[in-house]
Amino acid sequence: MKFNTKTIHGGQEHDPAYGSVMPPIYQTSTYAQSTPGGHKGYEYSRTHNPTRNALENAFASIENGNYGLAFGSGLAAIDAVIKLLQPGDEVISTNDLYGGSYRLFTKIYEDFGIKFHFIGMENASKIEDYINDNTKLIWVETPTNPMMNIIDIKTTAEIAKRRQVILAVDNTFATPYLQQPLDLGADIVMHSATKYIGGHSDLVMGALVVKDKDLADRLYFIQNASGAVCGPQDSFLALRGIKTLHVRMQRHCENGRAVAEYLANHPKIEKVYWPGFENHPNHDIAKSQMRDFGGMVSFVTKGNNYDEAIKIVENLKIFTLAESLGGVESLAGHPASMTHASIPKVEREKTGVVDSLIRLSVGIEDEADLIADLKQAIG
Ligand SMILES: *Cc1c(COP(=O)(O)O)cnc(C)c1O
Fold first, then answer.
1. Are residues 166 and 120 in the same domain?
2. At a CB cut-off of 8 Å and minimum separation 6, what does 339 contact?
């Protein structure tokens, strides 16, 4: 089955009771048993729920994995991965990282005795310098947030395999429409399904997908034991979102390109971060591992003035000033004061998150309206 068919049919069966084409929302916590243990595969909804299972099968299908797991948020999914580790273990992570992931790693898990190294991974061979006997996990985000750095998944996976380290890829920005990390050798793919997978800014959810049975069993154990599952209503919404993922992504990419090119030619703009530009430092890797370049675009204004950046995001009318990304509507964010406010200024500036950086999640509205909106807001 090709990707554009998998989004609609992958892992899905019509409901056995009445043949409903969409899975019913099984809004139940428990299931009747005829005799103790005599049930139809479902006992309690933290452990299994038919609507969530349908979604988990869809996740597995679109990421070319064998097992999918759905969580109450992206961070809950990341949390489950870190729970594979023990005190004393070490993790090598992308330095230009989603702020919430950085906070989880440094403010929660460092206290449990896990050590994190945050490094630039644009040159994947650098990862090897940080691997030692305690290294158990490599955590990669690509494209990175919000600097749009590209990390070579295949080369990273080869290093991870050779050194027997688990490689997890946060695929939130790219989605499986653009890249499928498991096919490139990653062990775990993670999503904030809140973003493109859900696609309509109406839910908060996380996902993990793996190929390996043993790894899946360990993660299912953690999912059930820690309990950060999503509910049946949200599972239904995410399933509905997945069905249009490919058509939405196609338009996100088209509009993203138009916006990136408009900004790159604007006299007041200093720099535009978008992996589709030939002068992007890892454009060749982006081209080889991604089908297109996505709808996320960041830019910096000339003079790098904080107040001017604030004024631009306030002036926007079609782009909504809001956290998050990946919905059908265009959003604008100011990382220094919003998503990355939890990262100390010196740390964030090292990775390029300067005062005037603006990040756009380009939606699927008409391209001409989006360009006109940027034009009136930037001046
Ligand atoms: C939003 C996001 C997360 C966290 O997901 P939540 O659903 O908000 O918990 C993790 N990684 C990336 C890249 C994100 O954009």
1. yes
2. 98, 99, 145, 146, 323, 333, 359
Instruction: Supply the pTM of this predicted model.
Output: 0.96
How far is the centre of ligand 1, averaged over its atoms, from the C-alpha of 170 (Å)?
A: 9
Task: Answer whether 96 contacts ligand 1 (Cβ < 6 A).
Answer: no
Do 24 and 118 lie in a common domain? yes
3-state secondary structure of 189: strand
Same domain, 269 and 202: no
Q: What percent of the chain has pLDDT over 90?
A: 93
pLDDT at 339 (0 to 100)? 81
For residues 253 and 177, membership in a common domain is answered with no
Q: State yes or no: pLDDT of 342 exceeds 80.
A: no
Distance CA 165, CA 162 (A): 8
Domain boundary among 195, 210, 242: 242
pLDDT (tens digit, 9 = 90+) per residue, 136-176?
999 999 999 889 999 999 999 999 999 999 999 999 999 99
Q: Looking at the 3D structure of the chain, how many domains does it have? A: 2
Atom of ligand 1 nearest to the CA of 324: 1
Q: Which of 242, 257, 278 delimits the end of a domain? A: 242
Give the whole-angstrom CA distance, residue 295 versus residue 236.
25
Read off the tokens for 78.
């990341």
Domain that holds residue 81: 3-242
Which residue minimizes the CA distance to atom 1 of ligand 1?
A: 192
Residues annotated as part of the active site: 46, 98, 170, 195
| Confidence at residue 145, expressed as pLDDT on a 0 to 100 scale | 85
> 74 C-alpha to center of ligand 1: Å?
5
